[in-house]
Amino acid sequence: QVRLVESGGGLVQAGGSLRLSCAASGRAFSNDAMAWFRQAPGKEREFVAAISGGLSSTNYGDSVAARFTISRDNAKNTVALQMNSLKPEDTAVYFCAARSRSYSAYSRLPSQYNYWGQGTQVTVSS
């Protein structure tokens, strides 16, 4: 069974850093595009970052570009999101998602992703 499990969320002060991790299992991982989305209360799910299968090209949402970095370790079947210079508006539940057999990092719609984790809460205080 395919599983995506997020970890690393928590409470952090504005300007601080946090590193999220997504552990994937149950299918071939290296050919899948992986992404992070986030959703704040009362808001739609928002694209954060993606990394392609194959050569690991990356793409970022405008609100997080230059602050967040997505990476993957295929040997460990993990994807990470390094978040720096955090702002209160980054507060949300962060979800890991996978799009099977995708070599593009430019899929930004939740409906394009096949598998989802349960999310991890990130709270940034003022």
Characterization of this structure:
The chain is an all-beta fold. Helix content is 0%, strand content 48%. It is built from no helices and eleven strands. It has strands at residues 3-7, 10-13, 18-25, 33-39, 46-51, 58-60, 68-73, 78-83, 92-99, 115-116, 120-125. The strands form two sheets. Strands 2, 4, 5, 6, 9, 10 and 11 form a seven-stranded mixed beta sheet that branches. The chain has a four-stranded antiparallel beta sheet with strand order 1-3-8-7, with no helix packed on it. A hairpin with a 6-residue loop joins strand 5 and strand 6. The protein is globular.
Question: Topology of this structure?
Answer:
Layout (H helix, E strand, L loop, with lengths): L2 E5 L2 E4 L4 E8 L7 E7 L6 E6 L6 E3 L7 E6 L4 E6 L8 E8 L15 E2 L3 E6 L1
Features of this protein?
single chain, 126 residues, four-stranded antiparallel sheet, mainly beta, globular
Please state the CA-atom Rg, rounded to the nearest Å.
Answer: 13 Å
Q: Could you report the average pLDDT, rounded to the nearest whole number?
A: 96
Tally of individual helices:
0
Low-confidence stretches: none
Return the structural class. mainly beta
For the largest beta-sheet, the strand count, sense and barrel status come to: 7 strands, mixed
Helix content: under 10%
Distance between the termini: 40 Å
Please report which band the strand proportion falls in: under 5%, 5-15%, 15-25%, 25-35%, 35-45% or over 45%: over 45%
Element order: H for helix, E for strand: EEEEEEEEEEE
Number of strands: 11
Q: What overall form do the CA principal axes indicate?
A: globular
